[in-house]
Design brief:
The complex is a heterodimer of chains A (187) and B (210). With 187 residues, chain A is mainly α. Helices cover 67% and strands 2% of the residues of chain A. In chain A, strand 1 and strand 2 (6-7) form a beta hairpin. In chain A, helix 3 (48-63) packs across helix 4 (76-93). The model of chain A is unreliable at 1-5 and 99-107 (pLDDT under 50). In chain B, strand 3 and strand 4 (195-200) form a beta hairpin. The chains are: A mainly alpha (187), B alpha+beta (210).
């Protein structure tokens, strides 16, 4: 892969280098994967502080000597998303993140950024979807990644991702319908 | 086209934000259920766009800096660019030393081989076995005046050259030539490269008038 006329190292190569103590490799890996991961956690948790905390923790785990990543088992990115997903689950279990979709303190994205009631409802509905459906929506529709890319991340066929996404959209549309019928409109 | 077949295309059109093909549009007009689905999908896509814009934030700079500090703590003897340079320079220095040693060794080996070859090409016999003492007057080496005598067992070398008759006369070898031309002769050299004896070639056409 090339970018700006220089070779771009794969995530796995950067990981190998950072494990040997190369800080530049770690910084590059963080700059490449930190932001999408942060957005992903923000979508599934609905909380900026949770997104910040989980993203930080995911990369902290990469630094630790007991990091369990093994590139024979899949790409590094999938590993990062997997850790993030588990951390959010643990946080929910400890009720640090409210799973019901209600606002979480003042840092909740519902309060400061999303002004549309139906979008708020959609966001809540998204978080209530089963993980596989929710991930398909977040990665394909919110992160705008290709089916192939998401299939690689989720370690499943492209067709499966497509059908999960279509099913998820159907469920979300059903959740939005009562609001649409009650006449709630976008501002 | 059935409703089921059209669903996939319908969803993809809604996601991509473009209108379905003519065939699907005809189907949508004739099927209220799927027309409703089309509207739902378009609404979803619009909401997703709003959500995308809402969460375009990045992780904080402070968080990044803290991670870098954590990294430095975890790798106190980390790999830095200066280390890379140090390694590269050390490796280059070692390589240079090795190359110099190899070159030196090859040079000495070649010199030794040359000396051996020269000895092989020379008479290659100890002086007592050489033509120094051998045979009759004809073909006998005449010693060069005031030259050090050869040591017993010293290796000698014979070179073929042409010598001025005057120089030969200085050694007691008188040869008459018509036009003072140089005379072909063998010169016996000691190990130090100095001449010890001279022998006028028998077939040179000149007579030794010693």
């Amino acid at each position: 892969m090339q970018r700006d006329g220089r070779m771009e190292l794969s995530d796995e190569e950067l990981y190998r280098r950072m494990r040997k103590g190369d800080q530049k490799a770690f910084a590059e890996l963080y700059d490449r994967r930190g932001t999408p991961l942060h957005r992903y956690v923000l979508h599934i948790s609905g909380s900026h502080s949770a997104a910040e905390e989980v993203t930080h923790e995911v990369f902290l785990r990469l630094i630790r000597p007991d990091s369990s990543f093994d590139d024979r088992r899949g790409p590094l990115e999938a590993y990062l998303y997997g850790i993030a997903r588990n951390l959010v689950r643990v946080m929910r279990r400890h009720q640090m993140v409210e799973a019901s979709g209600e606002p979480v303190a003042e840092d909740n994205i519902l309060g400061d950024l999303i002004q549309n009631e139906r979008t708020v409802a959609l966001h809540a509905a998204l978080r209530e979807l089963p993980d596989v459906y929710r991930d398909a929506v977040i990665l394909c529709d919110l992160e705008e990644r290709s089916y192939e890319d998401v299939a690689r991340l989720m370690a499943c066929p492209v067709g499966t991702i497509r059908s999960r996404l279509h099913r998820a959209r159907l469920l979300l549309a059903a959740r939005l319908k009562p609001l649409a019928m009650s006449g709630v409109t976008a501002r | 086209m059935t409703c089921r077949e059209s669903t996939v295309e319908l969803v993809e059109c809604a996601r991509g934000g473009h209108f379905p093909a003519a065939e699907l549009q005809t189907h949508l007009m004739s099927c209220s259920r799927y027309d409703e689905r089309w509207e739902d999908e378009r609404r979803l896509t619009a909401h997703f766009r709003i959500m995308r814009d809402a969460v375009s934030r990045q992780p904080s700079i402070a968080g990044r800096q803290q991670l870098m500090r954590e990294f430095e703590r975890a790798h106190p003897d980390g790999f830095h660019l200066t280390d890379l340079w140090r390694w590269a320079l050390n490796a280059a220095a070692i390589l240079l030393v090795v190359l110099a040693l190899v070159h030196d060794w090859r040079y000495h080996r070649r010199s030794a081989e040359n000396i051996a070859q020269q000895r092989k090409n020379s008479v290659g016999l100890p002086v007592e076995d050489s033509a120094w003492d051998a045979g009759s007057d004809e073909g006998r080496f005449v010693s060069v005046p005031y030259a050090l005598p050869l040591a017993p067992g010293e290796f000698v070398r014979v070179i073929r050259t042409e010598i001025d008759p005057v120089a030969l006369a200085g050694m007691g070898i008188y040869i008459e030539t018509a036009d003072g031309a140089e005379i072909p002769a063998d010169v016996l050299l000691g190990e130090d490269g100095l001449p010890r004896g001279v022998r006028v070639l028998p077939d040179s056409g000149f007579s030794n008038l010693e």
